[in-house]
Every structure is written in structure tokens, then in C-alpha cells.
Amino acid sequence: MWTTDGTKLSGKYGTWKGHEYELRSTSPIRGLIYLVQEGGENPGPDWITHQQPHDFPRPPIAFTLCVPPGEVTNIHAVRATGELRPGREVEIVGEDADGNLAVVADVGFWTEEKMDLMEEHGFRQFNKQEPIGRQGVFGWLPAGMLHNIKSEVYWRKDAN
Question: What's the pLDDT score for residue 104?
């Protein structure tokens, strides 16, 4: 997923026929690479439309196209991060139509800080059966709350 300014958010990417797409996985699934477009208009007649629950941070519609692995180049994974304040880095995984960012707060956050995010910004925990201190929390924040936003390739297929 990309922000409206073109910044790549955390995810997997590859190039097919000269256009960069998100990928379901960097490795073939049942012998094919799945190209993904979350939301928007159907990119073409061969793409499959998926109605999905409007679950964090995915829109209620997505499109996929399965292609042979040899047709996809520049396969890589990106991690996008920003700081709520120095030393408190969140992972950025989405952007909504209003420019709010979907983030995950995990490593580097004290239990009390995670609980503050839940109380003040409506964040949720991934697993209600686990203590907050042993898991991340996720939710939406106004983009202006994040500083030092970075988008970095952390893995590239066939990199030397």
C-alpha cells in the first residue's frame, strides 16, 4: 500500500509488466504470484474481485491477479515506520481516505503506553486472551502525530 504522497507502506511488492504492485507473498502460492490491489477500481477484466470484511487496515474490496513467478521482478519487502516521540516507533501499515495512518505499536512501548493508545485513540489488541504487555496494539492516528517517517526496503529477493 502507498500513501497519497507515494510513500510505500509496510508490505511486499513486485513489478509486473512495468507496473509495481503489492504482493500477497514474496514466494509463489500454488505455483503463482498473487498481485494485489486494495480498494479503488478494478484494474482489469482478468482481476478477481474480493469482498472482504472492513478489517484493520484493509478496505472492504480488493482485487487479485495470479501470474507466473517468472513474470514478476524486483520482489522486495518494505517496512514503514514513524515516531510518536523519540524512541517510540510505530509500524505504518495503511492510510485512509482522510490521511489518517494505520499503525502498530509493539516493541519499544511499555504496557501503560499501549493502554493509553487504546483509551485515547481507540487502539485494539491483536489477541484479547493475551496480556497487553506481551503483544502489540493497532489503530488509526492522524498523520501529523507521527514524525521521522521512513520507508525502507528490508528484504530483496535474490539480493547479493
Answer: 97
For 13, counting Cβ atoms within 10 Å of its Cβ (0-12 exposed, 13-18 middle, 19+ buried), the class is buried
Asked if 160 and 128 touch (Cβ cutoff 8 Å), the reply is: no
Q: Look at residue 160 and tell me whether its pLDDT is greater than 60.
A: no
Polymer length in residues for the chain: 160
pLDDT digits (tens, 9 = 90+) for 52-75: 887 788 888 999 999 999 999 999
The pair phi, psi for residue 133, each rounded to 5°, is: -65, -15
Q: Is 4 exposed, middle or buried (0-12, 13-18, 19+ CB in 10 A)?
A: exposed
Cell 509488466 belongs to residue: 17
Write down the pTM of the prediction: 0.91
Strand partners, 50: 62
The 8-class DSSP code of residue 71 comes to: G
In degrees and rounded to multiples of 5, residue 116 shows phi and psi of -60, -45
